[in-house]
Amino acid sequence: MEFCDVADAAGIYHRYGAHIVGRRIFASNLFFSSHWTVKRSSDSTTAAQAAAERMYVETNPHEAPLRELFHMARIEYGRIDYAVVKDHIRVFEINTNPVAPAAAHLLVGAREIDCTTDPASRIPVRREFKPPWREELSWAHWVSRGVHTLLWKLHLLAIEAPVQRWLRRTKRWPVRNRERSALDQT
Q: Containing domain of residue 90, as a range?
């Protein structure tokens, strides 16, 4: 882990973002910031920066080296965040569970992920998801949730922690009494 100064001469940091879907790589965004942790472009994006982002997305200039990086990482779906320093890509992260790129990109590449590349084949889709398990929630869960909702509606969330502690102690009380009774009988 190290800090790599990727600011330009004006002290502006550039963070490129690209998605891979199957074998297709899509340039997603180019963000600019005066701070080294670039999460999104600042509100003061210039016309030149907006034009640079548009050009990046339209031309996808780093597609070949990104393809090689994704191939080495064995990733077929994900997003890479990176900078370019002296014509070398400096990767910040590869997110394998990203927010999806534009739907058009996602649909174009979806057939290629662990599927045949035959464009006539259909992608199997279920109408309804049925989990292989059945979640069982105890009465204590519903009481705790109800108390939380009530305190939230009364604007009393500040006292929720002690109230929930009291509820947990109260919930254990009958169990402890049964255990004591059983011990007393022996």
A: 13-110
Same domain, 19 and 82: yes
Identify the three-state secondary structure at position 76. coil
Q: What pairing do the DSSP bridges indicate for beta strands 24-33 and 77-85?
A: unpaired
Q: What's the whole-model pTM score?
A: 0.54
d(C-alpha 106, C-alpha 123), whole Å: 13
Question: Are 147 and 164 in contact, with CB atoms under 8 Å apart?
Answer: yes
> Nearest 5°: CA angle at 37, between 22 and 53?
55
Q: Comparing C-alpha atoms, which of 48, 74, 59, 65 is closest to residue 26?
A: 59
Tokens 């929720």 locate to 160
Higher pLDDT, 105 or 50: 50
Q: pLDDT tens for residues 38-54?
A: 776 666 778 888 888 88
Cβ neighbour number for residue 185 with a 10 Å cutoff: 6
Instruction: Evaluate whether 19 touches 78 at the Cβ level (below 8 Å).
Output: yes
Mean pLDDT to the nearest integer, 132-157: 82
Structural tokens at position 49: 């920066």
Three-class HEC string of 116-150: CCCCCCCCCCCCCCCCCCCCCCCHHHHHHHHHHHH
**Whole-angstrom Cα distance, residue 64 to residue 14?**
20
Helix/strand/coil for 23? coil
Question: What is the number of structural domains in the chain?
Answer: 2
